[in-house]
Fold each of these.
Amino acid sequence: MAEFENLPLHIGIIMDGNGRWAKKRGLPRKMGHRAGAEAFKKIATYANKIGIRYMTMYVFSTENWKRPKDEVDAIIGLLRNYLVEVDNYRDQNFRIRFLGDLSAFDADIQQKMEEIRSESANNTGLTLNLAINYGGRDEIVHAARKLAEQVKAGVLQPEQITEASITENLYAGDEPDVDLIIRPSGEYRLSNFLIWQSAYAEYVFMDEILWPDFKPTHLDQALLAYQKRNRRFGGI
């Protein structure tokens, strides 16, 4: 059993395996994403209950646009549904943020995301980041451009650019680095997720589980594995 008084401050989850889950059952891939969305809701609720402060969920990457149109449309449809359902989670006190290039989405989606972000900004429960149209490299480019604009405007000198200033210009630059990244489904890569923030993250890869089957007990297993690690941050 994980020690709930010794939790990581920030967890990142790569929600992987939706398509394979559906294929194993002879279902369309979009049904896997629907099941994955239900798992997402359960895990976010549980994380909030046990006291996790920050959780970033990899919903849709900058590369996912390459997938078949009907699958992309299904994912966007699930996003729309979630944005409508957010009111059902008000009692959980989530602070909800959306990380990524949101300009790619229809105006109504952008407006609803901004409303949710603004209305939940002062909530004190779990900060739930939805990484959507997100890529780690793209985020760093975004931060670099913001810093370049400051240099161009004369308010910043190149030699004043530091790790801290880069962090401050990320999508959620006021949040702590990620402590633990969890990836189910048997893949062993970061897939362009939180590249800057995961410099000293611990990783837990789970071979036996696809995301739609991921339950609070699996999160407990990952937390227990994390708590057994010796985090030295480059020291002895």
Note: The longest helix spans residues 29-50.
Amino acid sequence: MQERESGTALVIGGTSGLGLELATLLHSKNNFGVYVTGREKPENEQIKFIHLNIGPDTNLLPSRINNIISDLPQTDLLVYAAGFYQEGSMKQLTDEDITKMVNVGLVAPMLILNRILNRQNKLPGVMAITSTSQWTPRIDEPIYTAVKAGFGMFANSLSLDPQVGKVLVAGPAGMKTNFWLETEKDTSNMLEPAWVAKQIYQLYFEDNFKYKCVRILREPPRIEILENRIA
């Protein structure tokens, strides 16, 4: 077991974009020992990298997650920021498209929370990064919008669990990240991930809430607090 610092944060999907920005803030401002998962190691040497490719194979996922959680110190904060863009109507999507999106958006966070709580009984905090798509149905993003909405409700339900501390659900609008690399989307008016990370960080640490749900909107960039349930 590794020696703990002021706390340990596990950031799923923390090797780029918003996840990496949050991981960097947690290490620099709170002296957290930060572990990030993803497919490619980030350049920041102060952040500990764990390779995790969630993928469409549901049979392999439990063992991959078991290996990660069993090797970590006690987790004080789980940040779930994994996600990817998927476009296509239900008729166009393949079985692999569907299972990969559901694995990344729902199955993986559920397995991770299950393993953490079974291992250490309590988890002081969760940051659940969803999307404004959680509240916006789209014909060409049926699985994406569904998993974001489901993940938001899952996190809300977690906040009722006495074994879980504070839970923040943050749904940002589109950001200027690699999320859009294989698309033709215009990102010029999208949010800066560093700015979004600062807002999420402040929302999480500014008060002693039990559950908080926010939308992070653009044009102009702003925060809309939908619910703030005090501890």
Note: The helical segments are 17-30, 61-71, 95-120, 142-158, 193-205.
